[in-house]
Write a structure and sequence with these properties.
Layout lengths: L16 H19 L6 H27 L5 H24 L5 H19 L8
Helix pairs in contact: 1-2, 1-4, 2-3, 3-4
This protein binds fe (ii) ion.
């Protein structure tokens, strides 16, 4: 699946409506992040902030759900969530402070990481929830 046009379909389902709906929204935000990845544009900062806020909410709900359902790799999963959040926070910190970053290499790597996380890591808890 391509990062600049990631559209949720049934193959992406983790078997839970709440989490599937979260992932649909997340894919939409990721697409908008890539579309507006012009660093000089204030819209970019806003959409990356939206990504951070949404990831915070979604990861908390997801972690709760997989822990309650006894997913055995819950802790490793939560560590990856934490690492993703800190990578997105770093992008925002740099944008706020005018620190030069390579959007194509650094930011898109992080956005792709989130997409891969949903498509590969989240799929692993599918049978548990
Ligand atoms: Fe996850």
């Amino acid at each position: 699946m391509l990062l600049d046009n990631c559209i949720w379909d049934i193959k992406c389902s983790v078997g839970n409506d709440i989490l599937d709906n979260h992932h649909k929204v997340l894919f939409d935000i990721l697409t908008r992040c890539v579309e507006s990845s012009d660093k000089s544009d204030v819209k970019y900062l806003m959409v990356v902030r939206e990504l951070l806020d949404y990831c915070h909410m979604h990861f908390a709900v997801e972690e709760n759900m997989i822990e309650e359902n006894g997913y055995p790799y819950f802790q490793e999963h939560a560590v990856e969530h934490k690492n993703i959040l800190s990578a997105v926070e770093k992008i925002i910190f740099k944008l706020y402070n005018g620190i030069p970053i390579n959007v194509d290499r650094v930011d898109k790597f992080v956005f792709n990481w989130i997409l891969r996380h949903v498509l590969e890591e989240d799929m692993k808890y599918k049978g548990y929830i």
